[in-house]
Design a protein that fits this description.
The complex is a heterodimer of chains A (191) and B (285). Chain A is α/β, with parallel strands linked by helices and 191 residues long. Chain A is built from six helices and nine strands. Chain A has a single domain, classed as Rossmann fold (3-Layer(aba) Sandwich), CATH 3.40.50.180. Chain A has a seven-stranded parallel beta sheet, sandwiched between helices. Chain A is globular. With 285 residues, chain B is an alpha/beta fold. Chain B folds into two domains: 75 residues, no CATH class; 191 residues, Rossmann fold, CATH 3.40.50.150. In chain B, the strands form two sheets. Chain B has a seven-stranded mixed beta sheet with strand order 6-2-1-7-8-10-9. In chain B, strands 3-5-4 form a three-stranded antiparallel beta sheet. The longest helix of chain B has 26 residues. The structure holds S-adenosylmethionine.
Chain lengths: 191, 285
């Protein structure tokens, strides 16, 4: 079965709610590390991690440069930095915005795809632009697995829709099904 | 699942090959041009290099290597991709506020203060510091050393002329950073530019310094190195942190970028936190 090295999640408009539903569905012993980009405003405070901490049974961490990636943790891209993945640790950058966004979902997905290849699982949720679609393509190209929120159930359908239009998607699921599905993938990976 | 076409062994080989190509490219650039990117952080390097590969109409990193080595124009374009110089006055205002409230009182007790801004880019943070120290009444006792690897940005830093378009953001940062005067009195507007008061520059020395290859050049009471270390890999960060430790007086202050930390280096135990959130540390051993 597919080993899961990392799960990367991207979302923008409506993402705070979507992330809280997805993360809330994961048990405290859910091993695969999770890294998420939610488009945040440049001067936004730390309210996103604080809010998600109230919803998630896994510890939620705002990433520092070179932080080690550990199992059973949820990692968030800090405001105004790109979040990149290297095997085993994170990397931040102040490189220019991609698709008008920093953090950018494409940047996270592409780096995770390159670092974890077939062990990378990408999840694209609600959002109002097309950031993330190219990242999904890269994850597929490196042999990873890709899940997109059903645009019909998404608060903002543009982002998942552009993912579906651009990449070869493995599963399209309504928001409430995504957490449980990840748990299923993970359980299978251990057998 | 459409796994049929996917061959993990072949993909692994491709990635290993990519690593070899990046290694050869940075080694070639170092030997031929002297720019040392060999220990810059891999994921960001990979992104920037591929961006240049496509922009040059090429399809492999090896092809870029050939072009870069034979065409200095191409090297210059790549250099621009690899250099991130974005900065702002009073960037992360709460950092300056914490410095004002928690560090300045310490510096007040010193007869003379030496400050190093490593990787100062176009100098906005240096001019900000000169304003802050002036307002706190200790600037005449301070000497600021502002360094960067890049001569072009240093020249701009020296000139102290910044786009007028950035003044709105700078002003609001200045206020959030606890500024005590009127920001617009620090500069004269001329066309699209703001020319800063030359008197602010009196105690600043600008010099080229490469954190990768150059040694320590003085002992300091304060070292700022913000948003530079994120471009380095672990090994290089470790070396540069040693350089800073060796360049800091006992009880000297180290100020890093918002998401940079000494936690993952061997110097962590040499410092205590002055403000954990703002990444202000004090050398204690
Ligand atoms: C993003 S800017 C940071 C500017 C400023 N410190 C700030 O926080 O706003 C990064 C700077 O680091 C400089 N830099 C990169 N590598 C360097 C090196 N090896 N030695 C010295 N400076 C370097 C770059 O030229 C660039 O100006």
């Amino acid at each position: 079965m597919r080993q899961i090295g990392i799960i990367v999640i991207g979302t923008s408009l409506g993402g705070m709610h979507a992330l809280s539903v997805l993360l809330g569905a994961l048990p405290p012993d859910f091993d695969p590390p999770i890294a998420a980009v939610q488009h945040r405003y440049r001067f936004s405070n730390e309210s996103l991690p604080a809010y998600l901490r109230t919803k998630s049974k896994l510890p939620v961490v705002d990433v520092d440069d070179k932080l080690f990636i550990r199992p059973r943790h949820v990692y968030l891209a800090p405001a105004d930095y790109h979040l990149l993945v290297e095997r085993g640790s994170f990397d931040l950058s102040k490189d220019p915005a991609v698709k008008y966004s920093r953090p950018s979902i494409d940047v996270l997905f592409e780096s995770a795809a390159d670092a974890y290849r077939a062990q990378c699982v990408g999840v694209l949720l609600t959002g109002s632009n097309d950031d993330g679609a190219q990242g999904l393509v890269r994850i597929k190209k490196q042999g990873g697995f890709v899940i997109v929120e059903d645009p019909a159930s998404a608060e903002a359908p543009e982002m998942p829709q552009s993912g579906i239009d651009t990449a070869q998607v493995d599963r399209i699921l309504p928001l409430e099904r995504i957490g449980p599905y990840l748990v299923e993938l993970w359980r299978q990976s251990r057998t | 699942m459409s796994q049929a076409a996917f061959n993990p062994a072949a993909e692994q080989e491709k990635l290993d090959l990519e690593m070899v190509e990046i290694h050869l490219l940075t080694e070639g650039i170092y030997r031929h041009y002297g720019f040392d990117f060999r220990d810059y952080s891999l994921p960001s390097m990979r992104r920037r290099i591929w961006k240049r590969v496509y922009a040059e109409g090429l399809s492999t990193i090896s092809a870029l290597q050939e072009k870069v080595l034979h065409d200095s124009g191409c090297m210059e374009r790549l250099l621009l991709d690899l250099s991130i110089n974005t900065t702002a006055m009073f960037r992360d205002p709460t950092f300056y506020l914490a410095f004002r409230n928690k560090v300045v009182p310490i510096l007040r007790t010193y007869p003379f203060v030496r400050i190093w801004h490593a990787g100062c880019s176009t100098g906005e943070e240096v001019w900000s510091m000169a304003m802050l120290l002036t307002e706190e009444g200790i600037y005449n006792r301070c000497r600021i050393y502002a360094t960067d690897i890049n001569e072009a940005v240093l020249q701009k830093a020296k000139d102290g002329i910044f786009p007028i378009a950035s003044m709105q953001e700078n002003t609001s940062n200045y206020i959030s950073a606890g500024g005590k005067d009127t920001f617009s009195e620090y500069y004269t507007a001329r066309y699209d530019y703001a020319i800063f008061r030359p008197s602010l520059r009196e105690n600043i020395v600008f010099a080229q310094h490469n954190l990768v290859t150059d040694a320590s050049f003085n002992q300091f009471n304060v070292i700022f190195c913000r948003n530079v270390l994120i471009y380095f890999n672990n090994a290089l960060q470790e070396r540069v942190q040693q350089l800073f430790l060796n360049s800091l007086d006992n009880f000297g202050i180290l100020g890093l970028g918002r998401k940079e930390s000494i936690r993952f280096t061997s110097v962590a135990d040499s410092y205590e936190e002055i403000d954990a959130e703002e990444r202000l540390y004090r050398r204690v051993r």
